[in-house]
């Protein structure tokens, strides 16, 4: 695996979100930092395992890389793609196993974890829950200001997950709040718990999906399904998970 590292400045500022696109043959990992209204890449890569290895050995290899990334980046949140049943039972089983590894690894470190469906991610990044993979890659490249699109698609999908979660969780707005900045300028976990218990949810800033400039009349309502908030007006959103 050859990761793509950002500058030290991008690694130490803002709130860091690690996206995990689970897969046993290829597991995409992508981290971004959110500072004010700016999203920057921190690192991106793909963990690969050989189908010739025993299942347990492949899972250990992925788990080791997940541990290494979490310990090195110490993200404020982890976003994992939600697994859906497919006709290919072996594929969805392997994907679910890797997703479970990510959930456990983050939870053991006390890092908040969220899962997002493919259509949620597509809608957040492109505005269209039915967008093709290439459209997602194009928008990820544009949002992060990259010179070249992340390859393979698993890498771009992991970054899209991280961007989606940062926007959905109000991570962009949270970094501009005064008073309760913690590590790397992010709000402390105590302050996040306090906001959660008080029922106050952050709103995305102007320019982010669901923000004032994209939907001025739609409030940021965490009780609404994410797809309902960000689906194109008059359009339907369907999940079309691809094979792993």
Global mean pLDDT: 74
Sheet of most strands: 6 strands, mixed
Strand order of the largest sheet: 1-4-3-2-5-6
Q: What Rg do the Cα atoms give?
A: 17 Å
Count helical runs: 9
End-to-end span in angstroms? 17 Å
CATH architecture identity: 2-Layer Sandwich
Shape: globular
What's the CATH class, please?
A: Alpha Beta
Oligomer: single chain
Give an overview in words.
- This protein has one domain: Nucleotidyltransferase, domain 5.
- 41% of the residues lie in helices and 16% in strands.
- The protein is built from 9 helices and 6 strands, in the order βαβββαβαβαααααα.
- α2 packs parallel to α3.
Please tag this protein with its features.
244 residues, alpha/beta, Nucleotidyltransferase, domain 5, 6-stranded mixed sheet, globular, disordered C terminus
List the helices and strands and how they pair.
Blueprint: E1 4-5, H1 8-12, E2 15-21, E3 26-35, E4 38-48, H2 55-73, E5 77-81, H3 89-108, E6 113-116, H4 118-126, H5 133-144, H6 153-168, H7 171-174, H8 189-198, H9 226-230
Parallel strand pairs: 2-5, 5-6
Antiparallel strand pairs: 1-4, 2-3, 3-4
Could you give a short description of this structure?
Helix content is 41%, strand content 16%.
């Amino acid at each position: 695996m050859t990761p793509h590292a950002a500058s030290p400045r991008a690694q130490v500022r803002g709130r860091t979100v690690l996206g995990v696109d689970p897969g046993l043959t290829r597991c995409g990992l992508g981290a971004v930092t959110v500072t004010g209204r700016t999203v920057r890449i921190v690192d991106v890569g793909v963990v690969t395992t050989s189908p010739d290895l025993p299942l347990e050995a492949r899972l250990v290899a992925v788990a080791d890389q997940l541990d290494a990334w979490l310990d090195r980046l110490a993200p404020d949140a982890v976003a994992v793609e939600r697994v859906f049943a497919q006709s290919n039972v072996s594929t969805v089983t392997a994907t679910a196993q890797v997703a479970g590894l990510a959930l456990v690894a983050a939870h053991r470190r006390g890092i908040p974890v969220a899962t997002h469906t493919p259509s949620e991610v597509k809608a957040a990044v492109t505005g269209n829950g039915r967008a093709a993979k290439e459209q997602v890659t194009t928008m990820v490249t544009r949002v992060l200001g990259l010179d070249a699109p992340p390859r393979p698609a698993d890498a771009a999908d992991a970054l899209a997950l991280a961007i989606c979660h940062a926007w959905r969780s109000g991570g962009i707005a949270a970094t501009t709040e005064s008073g309760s900045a913690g590590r790397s300028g992010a709000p402390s976990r105590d302050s996040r718990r306090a906001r959660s218990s008080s029922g106050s949810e952050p709103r995305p800033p102007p320019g982010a999906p669901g923000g004032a400039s994209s939907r001025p009349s739609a409030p940021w309502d965490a009780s609404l399904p994410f797809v309902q908030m960000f689906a194109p007006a008059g359009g339907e959103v369907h999940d079309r998970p691809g094979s792993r």
